[in-house]
Design goal:
By secondary structure, this protein is an alpha/beta fold. The protein is built from eleven helices and 15 strands. InterPro entries: ASMase/PPN1_MPP, Calcineurin-like_PHP, Metallo-depent_PP-like.
Length: 443
């Protein structure tokens, strides 16, 4: 049993379905790898400019559907997309928690889930431009802001054409991304929404427009290689290998199926196979894959036909608390941010922050002003790399999970724990972003 437990401890156990919190393998967790850089991921903001604190939650809290006896939270409602106060609070939390990251990865989906009406390009570019300006203002000029296209960042949603500058160039001009991307990245972006960014550390970030492969995209399904992205991606992966540079793949939608609704494939089947085969071919050079889209803390394991691990994909939960109903388990989504730690070869760890909307609701006066918050709890010391909170995925996994959890608890008890408590009358936006992702019933 001890030998089995050791093998289990060394397995790659990543944050996953039903609210698992991320962990690294024991080997990576306990092996120092030098100074790790840090970068933020913010994803699926879904800012809704029609959000109203008196709007009907059954109709996305929109201001045209007023409910006189109901008060939504100033920072959001679990049944609705993000108000501007939540967007601002998210950015303020990032700059207060870690103001000088190596870079900021912004993985798409910025407009709301609404069809009354569906956001057109005037709304999309106004939204993208505003968030771009806020991000650029929040962080110093020398910190790269790396944007990614989400499936909702087009009109109609999901439709990304096999076209060049006439379509994608608009995000640089009308969306403001020319202000955050260097010229060489802009030239690639015009071809299809993808680009390369080489960090001062030598790590290469390849931003991929996976919306071209999205199953609901009606504009690219007949192309063998939409926008030439597969050829470009292989060229860049080979170039990174020649430079002995590790690669971070960044995109919005991941390949594979959605865990919570396992009948939903994200990619067109042909593109799914081509994409996975290409990344597996170059798996040794890939440090990690970073995605959003699911609004769910999850992961993907990429393995060869023989079962050899090639790379790992991390899926971060969203800023927006909105989630379609019904959700298995009835859980809601708390707005989330993720801070990764890495060196030049591996992702070492990540810390997930969330805004608990339930207590925030109680801190709001009738005029909507924040009152007080003492709810920023840090249950780790910031150096712990083994934090496992497991939720059983089924009776058939109960024994395996129980043994693994018991082994992990031995390690956890060796870690220094601290509780960060802040007192006094301070803005909710400053102190209410705490560790861990937790689900709550919609209110």
């Amino acid at each position: 049993m001890a030998e089995w437990a050791e093998r289990a401890m060394r397995a790659v156990l990543w944050a996953g379905m039903a609210g698992m919190v991320a962990s690294l393998s024991l080997e990576r967790a306990l092996t120092p790898k030098g100074n790790g850089g840090k970068f933020w991921q913010i994803t699926d903001i879904h800012w809704d400019q029609q959000y109203s604190e008196s709007g009907d939650p059954a109709k996305m809290c929109h201001d045209e559907y007023q409910v006189s006896d109901y008060h939504n939270g100033a920072y959001g409602n679990y049944l609705c997309d993000s108000p501007w106060k939540l967007v601002k609070s998210s950015l303020q939390a990032m700059t207060r928690i870690h103001p000088l990251p190596e870079f900021v990865l912004w993985t798409g989906d910025n407009v709301p889930h609404t069809n009354d009406p569906e956001p057109d390009f005037s709304v999309i570019f106004r939204t993208v431009s505003n968030i771009t300006n806020e991000l650029r203002t929040a962080f110093p000029e020398n910190i790269p802001i790396l944007p990614v296209l989400g499936n909702h960042d087009a009109f109609p949603k999901d439709d990304f054409p096999v076209a060049g500058e006439s379509f994608y160039g608009q995000y640089l001009t009308r969306g403001g991304w020319a202000a955050v991307l260097p010229q060489d990245a802009q030239e690639d972006f015009k071809k299809g929404g993808y680009y390369e960014y080489i960090l001062p550390s030598g790590v290469t970030v390849l931003v991929v427009n996976t919306n071209l492969y999205y199953a609901n995209n009606q504009l690219g399904t007949k192309a063998i290689d939409p926008c030439g992205q597969f050829a470009w991606l292989e060229e860049k992966l080979e170039g990174a290998q020649d430079r002995s540079s590790k690669v971070i793949i960044a995109a919005h939608a991941p390949p594979g199926y959605f865990e919570r609704f396992a009948v939903i494939p994200f990619f067109n089947a042909t593109y799914n196979s081509d994409y996975i085969n290409l990344l597996n071919k170059h798996g040794k050079v890939i440090m990690a894959q970073i995605y959003g889209h699911e609004h769910t803390d999850s992961f993907r394991i990429f393995a060869s036909d023989s079962g050899e691990l090639q790379s790992v994909a991390f899926l971060a939960p969203s800023v927006t608390p909105w989630y379609p109903k019904p959700v298995p388990g009835g859980t809601a989504i708390n707005p989330s941010l993720r801070l990764y730690t890495h060196d030049t070869s591996d992702i070492l760890d990540y810390t997930q922050y969330h805004l608990n909307l339930e207590p925030v609701q109680s801190f709001i006066l009738e005029d909507g002003s924040p009152v007080s918050a003492d709810n920023f709890d840090d249950n780790s010391d910031g150096t712990s790399h083994l934090v496992i909170i497991m939720v059983a995925l089924g009776m058939t996994l109960m024994v395996v999970l129980a043994v693994t959890l018991a082994a992990m608890l031995v390690i956890i008890t060796l870690q220094r724990k601290s509780v960060l408590r802040r007192e006094g009358s301070v803005p909710v936006s400053e102190l209410s972003w705490g560790l861990r992702q937790q689900g709550y019933k919609p209110f």
